[in-house]
Amino acid sequence: MRLAAALLFPALAFAADRVQLPAGPGRGTVETVCSSCHGLQIVTARKLDKNEWQSVVETMMERGASLSKSDAAAVVTYLSRNFGKKEPGRELVEDVCTYCHSLAKLAGQELTQEEWRDLIKGMIFEGAPVTDDEFQLIVEYLAKHYGIKDQQKP
After folding, report:
1. What is the mean pLDDT of each run of 10 residues along the chain (154 residues)?
2. Of 31, 33, 100, 106, which has the fewest Cβ atoms less than 10 A away?
3. Closest Cα partner for 152 from 111, 116, 122, 106?
4. What's the confidence (pLDDT) of residue 19?
5. By the 8 A CB rule, do 147 and 112 touch?
6. How would you classify residue 24: left for phi > 0, otherwise alpha for psi between -120 and 50, otherwise beta?
7. What is the 8-class DSSP label of residue 24?
């Protein structure tokens, strides 16, 4: 029994320590190259923009990480896409708007910035907990990412 427990607990600790990375180009390289020196928790905990990830990857290559230029570019894109900084408006939309609505519903709206402004005012009237500063960030984010491209209705 003691032998089984001694063998089981390290395996459980290792499994709990294992990070599941999102699918996408560059994932395999991150799993193989980055984890050869350190745990992936250090990678997934960082929230860096593309330039910052580029700097980190270059530093790791200087320290011995074996990456081709194309693999390095794929890793930077993968890390910035999956573990990059979020725009403040995105975090608000994810925290406030998706409490009641799905992102798919937002994507189908295709509203101008003024129409988003009016819609969000209505949501605040209905009880959405948004400050004036947050309101502006949400409107700008939604218009940029879920609005019509030319901001004018046909």
Report:
1. 47 52 91 91 88 95 94 92 84 88 81 95 94 94 80 47
2. 100
3. 111
4. 78
5. yes
6. left
7. S
Domain boundaries, the chain: 2-83, 88-146
pLDDT of residue 147: 85
Give CA–CA dist 100/113, Å, rounded. 21
- Range list of H helices, 84-154: 88-95, 103-107, 113-125, 132-146
Is 140:113 a contact under the CB 8 Å cutoff? yes
At 59, which amino acid appears?
Answer: T
User: Residue 45 corresponds to which tokens in the numbers above?
Assistant: 């905990």
Which pLDDT score, from 0 to 100, does residue 3 have? 46
Fold of 2-83: Cytochrome Bc1 Complex; Chain D, domain 2 (1.10.760)
Structure tokens at 35: 């984890």
Q: Give the CA count within 13 Å in the CB-facing half-sphere of 131.
A: 4
Name the CA dihedral angle for 80, 40, 44, 100, rounded to a multiple of 10 degrees.
120
CB 78 within 8 A of CB 47: no
CATH topology of domain 88-146: Cytochrome Bc1 Complex; Chain D, domain 2 (1.10.760)
* Cut 0.85: pTM above it: no
